[in-house]
Amino acid sequence: MRVCAAVLFATLAACDGSPSQPDRVPTGQLFDLRVGDSALTTDDLRIRFDTVRSDSRFPLDALCVRAGEAVIALTISRGGEIPVGRELDTTPARSSTTFQNFTITLSSLQPYPHSGRQIQPGDYIGSFVVNVR
Predict the structure, then answer these.
(1) 44 φψ region: left (φ > 0), alpha (ψ -120 to 50), beta (else)
(2) pLDDT at residue 121 above 50?
(3) Mean confidence (pLDDT) of the chain
(4) What are the pLDDT digits (tens) for 7-61?
(5) Which residues, at least 6 apart from 12, have a Cβ–Cβ distance to it below 8 Å?
(6) Which helix (H) or strand (E) holds 87?
(7) Local confidence band at 68 (pLDDT 50, 70, 90 cut-offs)
């Protein structure tokens, strides 16, 4: 009985380990966020993927003259500073924004539209990378 209690105590003690800080995204590393989620970088930059404002990308299985674009909204903050809102676009010219000495880039937005299938707001996943300027 004592052996079982000791094993149980050791198991519970091992599970009680709490990290000193949550997992953080390293600068320069690609990471994914769903709408409503946020990430904290190793430089204390918090990025929240708020919503997809518009998505006019043409379905992959359709013929189109232009590719269209999607616009997303982010909230960015660092430390105790006031958060700021930014919009990014899936077109390369508008896929990045700056905040302090950082550049935040939308690398991709999934899923890509298909004919006959509507994308729900919670289905969107953005891939981002943060670099120091």
Answers:
(1) left
(2) yes
(3) 84
(4) 333 443 444 433 444 589 999 999 999 999 999 999 999 999 999 999 999 886 6
(5) none
(6) strand 84-89
(7) confident
Q: What is the mean pLDDT of residues 85-105?
A: 97
Cis peptide leading into residue 113 (ω within 30°): no
Beta carbons of 124 and 34 less than 8 angstroms apart:
yes
Q: What is the DSSP letter of 93?
A: G
Number of neighbouring beta carbons within 10 Å of residue 89:
18
52 — phi, psi (to 5°)? -100, 110
107: left (phi over 0), alpha (psi -120 to 50) or beta: alpha
Q: If you search the block for the tokens 């990025």, which residue do you land on?
A: 47
Answer whether 0.85 is exceeded by the pTM.
no
List the one residue out of 33, 23, 22 whose CA is nearest residue 104: 33
Q: Which two tokens stand for residue 17?
A: 């380990």
